[in-house]
Design a protein that fits this description.
mainly alpha, 375 residues
Amino acid sequence: MVGLRAAVRVGWKLRHRNPSSRNPGRLEHLRWIHVAIRLADLPVCEPDSRDNLASWKRTNSQPKNCCWSQCKIGSSEKPKRETLAVAWTAVLLASSLGLILWRELATGEPSWWPWIHATGLVVIFALTFVRANLKPLRSFVLILLIIFFFGFGGGWQFGVIPFVRSSSLWINLESQLPWSLSAIVTHLLRFSPAVAILAFLLIMGRKRQDFFLAKGKINAPVEPSRLLGMKKPEPWTRIGTIFAVVFASVTFIYLTFSSSTSLDAVIKALPLIPAAILIAVINAFNEEFTLRAAPISELLSAVGKKQSLMITTVMFGLGHFYGVPSGLLGVLLASFLGWFLGKSMLETKGFFWAWLIHFLPDVFIFTFFAISTAA
């Protein structure tokens, strides 16, 4: 940057030393700027004698790979808005929004509705090969396609996993297994999208740290947030521990008062608790990686940190409309949890707090499922 400023000053001096011929001095000035840009390893294009010096001024709104003599103020605004709009469209198509609208506002979802969403996602994926400004979304949209076609977006009524579970072979297998083994096998099947996405990211040359599959810096500072009532940074070791206990406690209290369990059922379910814990381990990793870590990692360079967090938060929240708790309350609680866990990944550059805070409530959820089967 220092060299660039020096080149500009030299250029002006050369220009004013030739008062009889303004144009040659001006071209000399542009030539010096051109040399300085090359030394700074910035993208350039050959100066045209018709360019005016103002067009060489760079502004914050201009893309990094834009030539100075061609960039205009605000030239990146339209592509940025388009990229953001396409990212939101893609995530809403892949989410459970369509399923919720069909079930809550109509008599139920028709058999053809998932194909409309799938077609939309395929069209958006094709556009990433046609429009240069949508290319950064290509990996993200492919991840959404994997998520949707494996069954997440269709509410487990459409896709590869529902197809396998509806087969006679699988039904016979489940009927012959006890609840613990049947539930473990089912969640291992649901783990298949995570395996597919992980394989894709590794094939693309991504490292584990690129998609947050690392412990990260667990004592990193939490960025102040009005939503958390924080005015100054505090370590994640403190905030993460507090929220882990709070989320787990609230889940336990809700399940206790919303379900009727007897002491006999609890005693009968004690042998099933290890299976419930194992299922919680699998489910927490599956959802955190598939619905948060991988999508955020591929969105960051395209739409930025804030929008990446918001997009994945909405997708995660809508996916829990029929969860525990269900309805609007379930969406709001899951959205806040999704936002908080995504924030932990972005700030610690790791998976630790997101997985732990998700895992602890899941232990109670699947334990109560086990109790209900033993009753």
